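Sequence in, structure out.
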Amino acid sequence: MQQSAEYENLDNLNINHSLGGAAEFNAVISNLISRVQTVTLVKVLAVSGTGVSPVGEVNVQPLVQMLDGAGNVYSPGRIFSVPYFRLQGGSNAVICDPVAGDIGLCAFASRDISAVKRNKA
């Protein structure tokens, strides 16, 4: 029984070569995990909305360097309009506004918070 030409190429098929193998799979998973942020150290670059006004926002620069897919180190970009924390209950608050140059923690939301930031509700 003679095989057709289209099946002859399948005899030498190696699943590790066709899918990139475990190394490629590991690289894809590592890349996806590296994009997940929870909390990182940042330097405050600028502050808006200080004093007794409603809670303001800061522009920050993450301090922890990152790796690209090829293993090269690079500095992350700036993050703009990040609301900062105030200990607040009703009309009472502990006001300790950040200033440019401060180092702090920046927490990242798992969903889009732009509507909450815009409407304050």
